[in-house]
Design a protein that fits this description.
two-stranded parallel sheet, 4 strands, mainly alpha, about 375 residues, two-stranded antiparallel ribbon
Length: about 375
C-alpha cells in the first residue's frame, strides 16, 4: 500500500485460512487445542505442557530476536512466484526487494515491499490465526501483486507523468482511510475488497497493475467496455516500454524492519487489540431471535453462535468486498453479533442452515450500509 496504510490488515492482519506452508499445526495452535483438555495418558499431557510453554516463550520474546528471514521461510517461494509473474509479463529489470515488518505496505515513494513478519514462521502464523485472521496463499499473492504495483509506480516514477495523472488522478491528493466508493463503478478494476481502487489514485494504479499481472485474469474480456480498460491498456503499453529499462529508483528504503521491532510478540498483539475500533452495544436481540427462531427443545439444533463462527470469515469477506466498509469494522460487527447470539442461547436448525446463512448475511450487510451512509450501525 502506498502511504504506509495497512489495507485493514491490522484488525486482524483479511479468520483467514493458513498459507499452504502453515497447514500443519504450529506450536501455538497445538497449545490452543491441547491445553485444558483432559489428559489422555502421560505422553499427551507432556506434549500439551511443552506446547503451552512454547507459546509462552514466543509471546515473551522480542520480535527482533526471533531470527526471522524471508529466505528459507514459507514466503520465499511466493516471492519467487511474484518475480516469475513479472518476468512472464516482460518486466525483466523490475524486481522489488521485500522485507519483513509489522504489516503489509510499500512506504510512499519507496520501491520495496513490506510483508507481515508472522507469515515467515508457521508457529507465528498459527498464533496470528488464533488472534486475528490469517492470509491464505491466494490472498498473500493478491497483496504481493498490489504492493508490487506501488513499487513499480515508485521505481519508474510514473506518478509524475501527465498521462498517469490524467488516467488515475493527482498523486498528491489527500489520503483518507475512510472513503466512500461508488459501488459497481466500471471506471475501476476490482481486486481487493471494498472497491479499493477508488480509495486514492495511487491505489487505483496498484489495483490496475494487480489485475494486469494476475495470471489468467482474462482482463481483456472481463473489462471490455469498461472505463477501466483504458488504464489496463496503459499498463500493458508502459510494461512494453519499460520491460528492459532499469528503474529510475532501483533501491528503496524500508520503514521499520523486523530486526528493529523491539516489542515482544505479546506486546505486538496487545497493542493491536488496543487499536481496534470498538463496536458499541447494538441492541440486536429482537432481530437475532427472529433470525434464529428455533426451539431449544429441538434435538437436532446446534448453538447458533457456533454456526455463525463457522461462516464468519466468508461472510465478513463478502460484506467488505461488496459494501466497501473497512474489513476491520465488518469483522468486529460479526464478532459482536456472534457474541450476542451466544449470550442469548439461540439455536440453529441444520435443515434451515441455508436460510439462516442468507438472513444473517443480509442482516449484517444492512447494518454495514447503515454505517456507510449514516456513520452508525443502528439508528437510535
Amino acid at each position: 500500500m502506498g502511504f504506509q496504510e495497512n489495507l485493514g490488515k491490522r484488525e486482524n492482519l483479511a479468520e483467514r485460512e493458513k498459507p499452504e506452508s502453515a497447514e500443519k499445526p504450529g506450536r501455538a495452535e497445538k497449545a490452543k487445542s491441547e491445553v485444558g483438555a483432559k489428559p489422555n495418558g502421560r505422553g499427551r499431557s507432556a506434549r500439551a505442557a511443552r506446547a503451552a510453554l512454547s507459546k509462552q516463550e514466543i509471546l515473551g520474546k522480542p520480535i527482533r530476536e526471533l531470527g526471522l528471514k524471508v529466505e528459507g521461510s514459507p514466503l520465499e517461494r511466493l516471492v519467487n512466484q511474484l518475480y516469475r509473474e513479472l518476468a512472464a509479463k516482460g518486466l525483466h529489470k523490475f524486481r522489488p526487494a521485500v522485507y519483513l515488518t509489522d504489516e503489509w505496505g510499500c512506504p510512499s515513494g519507496e520501491p520495496v515491499i513490506g510483508i507481515p513478519f508472522y507469515l515467515a514462521n508457521p508457529d507465528l502464523a498459527s498464533l496470528e490465526k488464533e488472534m486475528n485472521d490469517l492470509e491464505d496463499r491466494r490472498e498473500i499473492m493478491m497483496y504481493l501483486r498490489h504492493e508490487a504495483g506501488h513499487a513499480f509506480n515508485y521505481a519508474y516514477k510514473l506518478y509524475r507523468q501527465p498521462e498517469w495523472k490524467q488516467l488515475f488522478g493527482p498523486f498528491r491528493r489527500p489520503y483518507r482511510e475512510m472513503y466512500r466508493p461508488v459501488p459497481f463503478s466500471r471506471n475501476y478494476v476490482r481486486h481487493l475488497a471494498g472497491w479499493y481502487a477508488q480509495k486514492h489514485p495511487d491505489e487505483d494504479f496498484a489495483e490496475t497493475f494487480s489485475v494486469w499481472l494476475t495470471p489468467r485474469s482474462n482482463w481483456r474480456k472481463r473489462y471490455r467496455g469498461w472505463g477501466a480498460m483504458e488504464k489496463l491498456r496503459y499498463m500493458e503499453r508502459i510494461a512494453r516500454d519499460l520491460g528492459n529499462v532499469d528503474p529510475v529508483r532501483r533501491r528503496g528504503a524500508p520503514d521499520i524492519t523486523v530486526d528493529e521491532m523491539e516489542a515482544t510478540v505479546g506486546e505486538f498483539y496487545r497493542q493491536s487489540v488496543a487499536e481496534e475500533t470498538p463496536i458499541v452495544d447494538l441492541a440486536l436481540d429482537t432481530d437475532l431471535v427472529d433470525i434464529f427462531n428455533v426451539s431449544k427443545r429441538k434435538k437436532t439444533a446446534r448453538p447458533a453462535d457456533v454456526f455463525v463462527r463457522a461462516h464468519r470469515k466468508e461472510v465478513t469477506d463478502k460484506i467488505a468486498y461488496w459494501t466497501g466498509l473497512q474489513r476491520p469494522l465488518v469483522k468486529k460487527l460479526m464478532e459482536a453479533i456472534e457474541k450476542r447470539i451466544g449470550e442469548l442461547g439461540l439455536r440453529a436448525d441444520p435443515r434451515r442452515e441455508p436460510e439462516h446463512l442468507a438472513e444473517i448475511t443480509a442482516y449484517a450487510t444492512a447494518l454495514a450500509m447503515n454505517f456507510i451512509t449514516r456513520g452508525k450501525f443502528v439508528q437510535t
